[in-house]
Amino acid sequence: MQVKRYEAVNIHDALAKIKSDMGPDAIVLSTKRLPGEKRLIEVLAAKDNGCEEQEIFTGESRKGLDRTEFSAEDREILFSLRSEIEEMKTLLHGAEREKYCEEFVELKDYLNTFFDALGSGSKGEDKSTLSKIYYYLVNRGISKARACHLLEKIKQSYPSREVNDYEKGLKIAEDLLKGTFIEVSKQERRVKVFLGPTGVGKTTTLAKLAARYSLEQKKSVGLITTDTYRIAAVEQLKTYSRIMGLPLEVVTGRETFRQSMERLHDKECILVDTPGRGREETGHLSKLKDMLAGDWDMEKNLLLSLTSSRESMMDVVGRFSTFGYDKIILTKLDECTHCGILCDVIERASKPVSYISTGQNVPQDIEQTNPVRLAELIMRH
What we know:
Largest sheet: 8 strands, mixed
Radius of gyration: 26 Å
Strand order of the largest sheet: 6-5-7-4-8-9-10-11
Number of domains: 2
Strand content: 15-25%
Helix content: 40-55%
Number of strands: 11
CATH architecture of the largest domain: 3-Layer(aba) Sandwich
CATH class of the largest domain: Alpha Beta
């Protein structure tokens, strides 16, 4: 047996070195964090030169898995999975057991589901089809945990003949995703406020909907902007209001907002633009909330950019929850490659998605959406 020691910054770099040096059949014997400021990790790897095939799993994790049945593609998948497991083991080193116990029990369930997907040949299931479905979901941006959860539902709820069909399996996953989203209420409120971080596209989205309500639905529309921090934002909205022939009110505080609402009392629809500020400026949100306070028939829309990361979108969802927003509007679909992160974000928000902005053109680049369309975007866009 050939045994070698590797040092690397993280487990992924170490496993890349091992794979390049010893091949995909190498096994990891141990990992540990090295002392020192560089915070390197040490990985001990081995390969039996006298045996072509290596055991990868032992104990319960070996159940249902016959190493000799795997194709080259399956071995690559298993090596990738082993990489993730070793990363988890390294992160666990020195952690408080009580703090992470619940999370890793749940993680164990997800991993067991994945092992079943690859190795439960006794049930007559096609390991390759299930693993392909799993990696298709992950490549769409869906989290590994949610992909495992979807696989588990597919295995439990549908006949094996459908699961073994790759295209049918993907359609089942799409249908399951559709059922996780909330339908948009047909009832709309008179005042619509647009909230969100800077650069998300609030002003452009407001202009698109203003055109839709005034030109297509023939409603009387009034515009309000509270974004006096950016002169360009006011000028941009003034241009739109002039082109569409709509009144525009510029407000700077709670009292001027009340006065503007009174002046627009005869309008069937009032659209309110708000400023976007950095996440460090925590006082901005409380001031904005105070400005909007009142007995208005108000609908609050949170805008999220599809070009943002999962962590950024989750942060926005959490920070703006203080407003009790009613709906979500997604922007910049034209700049997005994969929409899978929406699964976790929309679940966290627990709100329906009403519109998707598909480009910069006013007013045409916006569409109403529903759970069917969202699932389609996640699986096919």
